[in-house]
Amino acid sequence: MKKLIALYNTPTDEVAFLAHYKNVHTALANAVPGLVRIEVTRITRTLLGEPGAFLLAELFFEDKDFKDAMRSPENVALGADLPLFAEGLVTVMTGEVVES
Predict the structure, then answer these.
(1) 3-class secondary structure for 65-93?
(2) Alpha carbon distance 16, 39 (integer Å)
(3) What letter does residue 100 receive in the DSSP assignment?
(4) pLDDT tens digits for 46-100?
């Protein structure tokens, strides 16, 4: 399983950020083809490392669907939405789930 991961730092206006995230960005994410599920974690405390993380979003895809999903117009729209509410706040990564 592959993931698209977004780590957001704490915004100045948390209420506005969360409103946009919930009402706009999540709908765009749900439209990406091949999406299996989304997990969103609100960071409550940093125990080790740099403080400032606010939200972690993980979008899960089957391996066979990942490349097409990343190239899809829906994913392009998802990425284009980021500067509208998270400019300078987000790190976007891809990863592969490793069973332990």
Answers:
(1) HHHHHHHCHHHHHHHHHHHHHHCCCEEEE
(2) 20
(3) -
(4) 999 999 999 999 999 999 999 999 999 999 999 999 999 999 999 999 999 998 7
